[in-house]
Amino acid sequence: MNKYANRDERKSARQVAILEVIASESVATQNALARALKRAGIHATQVSLSRDIAELGLVKAAGRYQSAPAMTGAADPELSLRTSLRSASAAGPHLVVLRTDTSAAQPVGLVIDHMTLPGIVGTIAGDDTVFVAVKNAAVSKTLLDYLHARIKKP
Hints:
Layout: H1 5-24, H2 30-39, H3 46-56, E1 58-61, E2 64-67, H4 79-84, E3 85-90, E4 95-100, H5 105-113, E5 120-125, E6 129-134, H6 137-148
Helix pairs in contact: 1-6
């Protein structure tokens, strides 16, 4: 087993948790972010948080950390995930299949491409389906957990 695999999995989980925290609460400092992560059971050093913030492309706007706007030009970079994503499921350890509303696969794929979540290799988007290639099963689970929290409930 690769000695870095466990570290990469922890990093992926931490970065997904960071995105979830900043989406659900106003976080103005790295210390506040570290406290929020600790409440979620994730230990993070200031150095790790600083790197994660840079890798995730987070920006500080209106006095709090936010995801940078995606290339779609939307004010909310996850808007297409929350409004158009219908399901997400694993198709083996290296592929996640997303189903979207008709004509929404490409915007959803673009959001995934711009997430900078470590372990996402790339996406292929059709009309209502997105294939997301991932490095391993742990990244697949992390991505699925993140997406399931955003799927619009009927």
